[in-house]
Amino acid sequence: MQDTMLNKLDLVIRGGTVVSGQDVVEADIGVADGRIVALAEGLPQARDEIDAKGQIVMPGGVDVHAHIEQVSATGLMTADDWQSATTAAALGGTTTVLAFAAQHRSMRLSEVVADYTRRAAAGAVIDYGFHLMIGNPDPLTLETELPALIDAGHRSVKVFMTYDRLSVSDEHILDVLEIAKRHGALVCVHAENHGMIAWMSRKLLAEGKIAPKYHARAHPRLSELEAVRRVIDLARLVGAPVSIFHVSTREGVAAIRAAVGDGAEVYAETCPQYLFLTADDLDKPGLEGAKWMFSPPPRGHADQAALWQGLRRGDLQILSSDHAPYAYDDSGKLKHGPDATFKEIANGVPGIGARLALAFDAMAHDGPRGLVRFAEVTAANPARIYGMAPAKGVITIGADADLVLWDPDQHRTLTDADVQDRAGYTPYAGCTVRGWPRTVLRRGAVIVRDAVLCARPGSGRMIARQTPGL
Ligand SMILES: [Zn+2]
Predict the structure, then answer these.
(1) Integer CA distances (angstroms), 386 to 176, 368, 468, in order
(2) Are residues 323 and 269 in contact, defined by beta-carbon separation less than 8 angstroms?
(3) What is the mean pLDDT of the chain?
(4) What average pLDDT score do residues 235-251 get?
(5) Higher pLDDT residue, 308 or 163?
(6) Structural domain contains residue 370
(7) 56-80 burial string, b = 16+ CB within 10 Å, else e?
(8) What does the pLDDT read at residue 5?
(9) Cα separation, 343 vs 74, whole angstroms
(10) Which of 361, 397, 403, 424 could in theory staple to 441 by disulfide, Cβ–Cβ 3.0 to 4.6 A?
(11) What spacing in Å lies between the alpha carbon of 349 and ligand 1's midpoint?
């Protein structure tokens, strides 16, 4: 570090315990022009100073799975817009999000991306990018629009193997995998077997089993296993990497581990709702269980243990939120009235704000290894896998100064009244966590101070992503 550089520090974050890659060190962080330029003890006085004594300094959270201001295939809008979703994210310690630009059957992908870009640019308070969600795999989409958008920096593509109005055929998944491989993008997949779910749902409804709890029964564990194996084989045929979203079952983790052991290039995530909730949470009076409905559904305690093990062993590299907020009223979950069947209730739970606090509580009180693992699965790995490293996800010289100061001992009980997104409830109400993000910086600017937002809507920036560093 040259003295001239040290004289030009805009900001020093002083005296914290810094989680930097594989290291946990007592160090000051020097910031200039929005980037980390120094990481050492005893940095000189800067224009601005933040006292981080007694706090854990983590890389800003990178959440690579969120549905924001998104219209579903059935025409339902998520409860959040860009401002409310990214406000909840920032207050929860997340500084980068990848959401979806969702193409439905008759839409032009380029128009969809332009529309989502405009809305994100107006509202976002954190940095962002888009997965290109392909619901209309016609020749214009596949041969012209998709390559151009990937080349422009949208370096991930989402396909569904289920849902009547969204799923694409194996043949089209092969097309998407090949185009993504050629142009340098990663394909992410919602992997469940559509036929199994449709068949189970039909049988349950015919027996009058319509309550929210039957949603979990309608998504058999085998439907995940079959689809995970199939899409891995489709990717192997093309010779492309693939990323499996929201793994929920022990068998799903085992299938991914086996395929990787066999040479397949597979990345995978899980989400808080699979680590902290079970199918029993859907078993509530009336339609109350709708608040815990999402796909795939939560499973059992043995699955939770397998998912934690998968995160520890690296079979699963990413812990995302899959934030998909629908209010528990007629704008969202209850749109089809008090007699709605589980098939008519919107799938999804909020989690963009709670993701990191839940994970910090579970992982970060375990010594340095736990702190490093938390930083890996919530920031470093998602940033690297989705083409945002080295600017995002790690506290290192040259990276964006996206930083979160955690008070490791603050206890907080999650309640519906405290949620910052617009779902109006949290599936984790009543859960007490230890550790809370008090100060959040995005590119060196304080956007959360003492757990209060101080960022302007539209101050988040779109990230031009690189070819994923796989
Ligand atoms: Zn999702």
Answers:
(1) 17, 26, 5
(2) no
(3) 95
(4) 98
(5) 308
(6) no
(7) bbbbbbbbbbbbbbbebeeebebbb
(8) 66
(9) 12
(10) 403
(11) 10
pTM of model > 0.90:
yes
* Contact by Cβ (8 Å): 40, 386: no
pLDDT for the residue numbered 380: 98
DSSP output for 141-155: IIIIIHHHHHHTT--
CATH code: domain of residue 34: 2.30.40.10
- End-to-end Cα spacing for the chain: 30
Report CA(274)–ligand 1 centroid distance (Å).
Answer: 13
Give the model's pLDDT for residue 176.
97
Query: Per residue, what are the HEC states of 327-344?
Result: CCCCCCCCCCCCCCCHHH
* Contact call for residues 36 and 395 (beta carbons, < 8 A): yes
For residues 26 and 99, state if they share a domain.
no
Quote the crossing angle between the two packed helices 221-238 and 170-183, to the nearest 10°.
Answer: 50
Q: How far is the CA of 446 from the centre of ligand 1 (A)?
A: 29
The answer to the question of residue 131 being in a domain is yes
User: Ligand 1 centroid to 305 CA: how many Å?
Assistant: 22
Q: Are residues 126 and 36 in the same domain?
A: no
Selection from 267, 254, 255, 266 nearest residue 302 by Cα: 254
Amino acid at 332: G
Q: Which pLDDT does position 51 carry in this prediction?
A: 98
Cα of 167 from ligand 1 centre, angstroms: 13
| Mean pLDDT (whole number) for 186-207 | 97
Distance CA 394, CA 383 (A): 8
Q: Which residue has the tokens 């370096």?
A: 155
Domain that holds residue 16: 3-58+393-453
Burial class of residue 21 (count of CB atoms within 10 Å of its CB; 0-12, 13-18, 19+): middle
Spatial separation of the C-alpha atoms in residues 451 and 436, rounded to whole Å: 9
pLDDT of residue 468: 78
CA of residue 367 to ligand 1 center, whole Å: 32
> Hunting for tokens 């993000």 — which residue is that?
437
Neighbours of 210 (CB within 10 A): 18
Q: Is residue 228 in a domain?
A: yes
Residue 393, amino acid? G
Distance 51 CA to ligand 1 centre (A): 37
Q: Convert the pLDDT of each residue in 7-39 to its tens digit.
A: 789 999 999 999 999 999 999 999 999 999 999
